[in-house]
């Protein structure tokens, strides 16, 4: 009946989309789908602004169950040994319409965490000065509707259960719980009869849909004969949803009988519970700040030693402790040491617990190292499979590592290749298993008594290899969910900044550093002119700007040619402050104000500029505001001087032709380069040109010194004062 269904609605606030250059530009949405959900509908709403700067745009939306989607819009290379499966995505186009609404339906979705990531196309790479241009806002919002059953029938194992499919429009939903240590499941459907006593045709769907890949199993049953489906390694300790839909006429109901049976895998234990306790007491792990509790795959068999159980058990469990180190950082420690025994009779199983809900934002790294001296057969191979939800209990030479509803990741080590590594990017939230078994080329019976030892190292890290020397690992947050991403530099790209197809060479990096730092030496002529003309305060400001701009750009380099003499944020602030104050004092110096008024404006303007830069360091009005106000003061002062002298000020045409016009031209060219020509690729030489042009314009724009002042006249003045004092003494002595 309709009353058995409950609809629920979940919504999250809209986010402003960004052009894609790294994973941090993708906007993430995190939802939780409840159990017994039979229909999931996404409502995707995209919109853009109405200004002339807004053009047609294509928005890419990615979906994934269990973890954030692994995407690669730029087509870069992933690190070696990384497992990558393409994400499920759709495109939403915003053309003439300001808003676009799209629906995405998923029937019988898997319960748990679902993630949506949305982004714009690749970034153009142009460096835009904040305030010079108004970017078009592109907004995206995802809402989720779910329809779930409040009392879904439960199929008990081993008990036949009759059910009725009312009509093709109303399929039957049941569920069955898969216990731990289930090796196989068999589903059987029988006694399929329609209400018209005719042979029926039904379709059975086992499992739930997951994206980007779905392993839902389908079974079509025709007539009253029994039909069945065997599932190897179904997901442990989870509800398995089964949907039966009629393929007959619309008015006929269908009666069926369903039966589910399980094959249990009895595990053998490598150590008893008492040995487990004594091992913890004799080999305590060092305490780490913030370490959470541990979880272990404990032995579930008899408490005695299992040297005699290996032949009767289908797997050998190894106790593993989960050690939380930091956010999205976990280390797995084997209680019996890093080396585990591997035989050909049954697989060795390790549990890697990643079901806390906060572990899917990093990278799971599994490394295997074979002890060559431990393998008695030279041609033997240790096959391994890393899988989620359920382990692979039957390893063979084909190495497909598939379970009932998922695809695992294969690994292998041998005497010829003793090392193997696997990197799982954004592993889904679940229990992960590592299965190892010894394989012989001449059959398993040939190495029944052989045993190999493999060292296992497994850990969860925010960024693999910490993004390398040319990347920065950034911890991102969406509400309460934390995940990590690599921001690459110096032309490097890829998920972990390992793609060097567009990387800058070391010579290019050194050239960029030298250009951006040594171009500041062009302030030396401006400093010399200011000192020669007795503008000592202005010369001090130019020296300050030259010093901090040089070392800021030496610290700001993306490659290996980096030198930081102090904190990066401090260097950046001092560089921005010096640049704006240099423009401020230069224009006020050109105004020819009275000394007391000029120095008051120097100090007051510097304090206000320091305050505004602290509020918004990259705002264009932090530079344009003081410049316009200083220009207003200068123009007012020049008008006053011209009216007072009754002719144009400055009065000399040579001053205009050889100093002011070249200085103003250089300043306008510098502003144009800074505001409209800089990109990520040409930054190191266009910004160097900005340094040169600004420094040269300052040297041209500084006014000449006052006519009554003679520079470097201090020694003469001091000598004169001393001489006067000496003459006074001589006169007094003569009178006495």
How would you explain this protein's 3D organization?
The protein is an alpha+beta fold and 736 residues long. The chain has 4 domains: 5-149, Jelly Rolls (Sandwich); 161-264, Jelly Rolls; 316-461, Sandwich (Jelly Rolls), CATH 2.60.120; 506-701, Rhopdopsin 7-helix transmembrane proteins, CATH 1.20.1070. The protein has 10 helices and 33 strands. Strands 7, 22, 23, 24, 26, 29 and 31 form a 7-stranded mixed β-sheet that branches. Helix 2 (506-518) packs antiparallel against helix 4 (536-555). The radius of gyration is 37 Å and the shape is elongated. The relative contact order is 0.09.
Task: Please tell me the overall pLDDT.
Answer: 84
What share of residues are in beta strands? 25-35%
Radius of gyration, CA atoms, in whole angstroms: 37 Å
Distance between the termini: 131 Å
The helix fraction, in percent, is 25-40%
- Helical run tally: 10
| Low-confidence spans | 271-312, 713-736
Morphology call: elongated
Count of strand segments? 33
Overall CATH architecture of the largest domain: Up-down Bundle
How many structural domains does the protein architecture include? 4
Oligomer designation: single chain
State the major sheet.
7 strands, mixed
């Amino acid at each position: 009946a309709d009353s058995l269904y409950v609809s629920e609605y979940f919504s999250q606030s809209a986010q402003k989309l960004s052009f894609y250059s790294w994973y941090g530009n993708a906007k993430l949405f995190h939802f939780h789908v409840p159990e017994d959900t039979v229909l999931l509908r996404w409502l995707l709403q995209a919109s853009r602004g109405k200004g002339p700067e807004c053009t047609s745009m294509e928005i890419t939306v990615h979906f994934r169950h269990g973890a954030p989607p692994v995407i690669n819009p730029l087509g870069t290379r992933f690190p070696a040994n990384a497992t990558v499966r393409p994400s499920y995505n759709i495109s939403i186009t915003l053309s003439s319409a300001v808003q676009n609404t799209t629906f995405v339906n998923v029937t019988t979705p898997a319960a748990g965490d679902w993630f949506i990531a949305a982004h714009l196309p690749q970034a153009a790479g142009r460096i835009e000065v904040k305030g010079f241009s108004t970017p078009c806002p592109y907004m995206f919002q995802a809402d989720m509707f779910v329809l779930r059953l409040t009392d879904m029938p439960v199929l008990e194992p081993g008990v036949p259960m009759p059910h009725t499919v009312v009509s093709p429009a109303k399929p039957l939903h049941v569920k069955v719980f898969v216990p731990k240590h289930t090796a196989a499941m068999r589903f059987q459907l029988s006694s399929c009869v329609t209400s018209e006593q005719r042979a029926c045709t039904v379709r059975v769907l086992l499992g739930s849909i997951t994206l980007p890949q779905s392993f839902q199993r389908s079974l079509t049953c025709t007539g009253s004969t029994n039909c069945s489906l065997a599932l190897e390694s179904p997901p442990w300790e989870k509800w398995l949803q089964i949907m039966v839909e009629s393929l007959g006429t619309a008015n006929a109901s269908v009666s069926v009988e369903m039966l589910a049976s399980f094959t249990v895998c009895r595990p053998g234990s490598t150590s008893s519970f008492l040995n487990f306790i004594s091992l913890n007491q004799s080999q305590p792990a060092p305490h780490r700040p913030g370490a959470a509790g541990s979880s272990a795959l404990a032995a579930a068999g008899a408490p005695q030693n299992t040297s005699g159980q290996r032949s009767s058990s289908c797997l050998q469990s190894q106790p593993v402790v989960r050690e939380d180190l930091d956010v999205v950082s976990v280390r797995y420690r084997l209680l019996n040491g890093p080396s585990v025994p591997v035989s050909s009779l049954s697989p060795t199983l390790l549990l890697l617990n990643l079901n806390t809900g906060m572990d899917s934002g990093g990278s799971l790294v599994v490394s295997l190292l074979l002890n060559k001296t431990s393998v008695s057969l030279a041609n033997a191979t240790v096959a391994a499979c890393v899988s989620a939800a359920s382990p692979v209990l039957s390893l063979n030479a084909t190495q497909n590592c598939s379970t009932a509803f998922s695809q695992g990741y294969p690994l292998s080590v041998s005497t010829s290749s003793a090392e193997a590594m696997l990197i799982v990017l954004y592993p889904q939230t679940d229990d992960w298993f590592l299965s190892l078994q010894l394989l012989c080329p001449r059959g398993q019976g040939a190495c029944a008594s052989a045993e190999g030892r493999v060292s296992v190292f497994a850990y969860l890290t925010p960024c693999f290899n910490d993004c390398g020397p040319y990347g920065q690992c950034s911890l991102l947050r969406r509400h309460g969910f934390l995940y990590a991403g690599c921001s690459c530099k110096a032309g490097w790209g890829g998920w972990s900044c390992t793609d060097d197809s567009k990387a800058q060479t070391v010579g290019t990096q050194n050239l960029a550093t030298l250009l951006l730092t040594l171009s500041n030496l062009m302030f030396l002529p401006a400093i010399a002119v200011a000192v020669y003309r007795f503008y000592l305060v202005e010369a001090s400001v130019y020296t300050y700007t030259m010093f901090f701009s040089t070392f800021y750009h030496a610290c700001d380099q993306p490659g290996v040619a980096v030198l930081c003499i102090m904190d990066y944020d401090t260097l950046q602030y001092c560089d921005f402050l010096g640049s704006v104050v240099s423009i401020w004092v230069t224009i006020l110096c050109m105004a020819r104000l009275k000394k007391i008024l000029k120095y008051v404006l120097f100090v007051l303007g510097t304090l206000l500029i320091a305050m505004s830069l602290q509020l918004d360091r990259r705002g264009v009005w932090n530079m344009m505001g003081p410049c316009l106000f200083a220009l207003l003061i200068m123009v007012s002062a020049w008008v006053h001087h011209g009216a007072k002298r009754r002719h144009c000020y400055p009065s000399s045409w040579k001053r205009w032709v050889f100093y002011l016009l070249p200085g103003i031209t250089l300043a306008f060219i510098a502003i144009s380069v800074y505001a409209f020509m800089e990109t990520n690729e040409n930054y190191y030489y266009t910004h160097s040109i900005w340094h040169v042009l600004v420094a040269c314009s300052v040297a041209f724009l500084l006014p000449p010194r006052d006519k009554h002042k003679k520079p470097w006249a201090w020694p003469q003045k001091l000598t004169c004062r001393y001489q006067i004092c000496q003459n006074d003494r001589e006169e007094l002595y003569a009178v006495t």
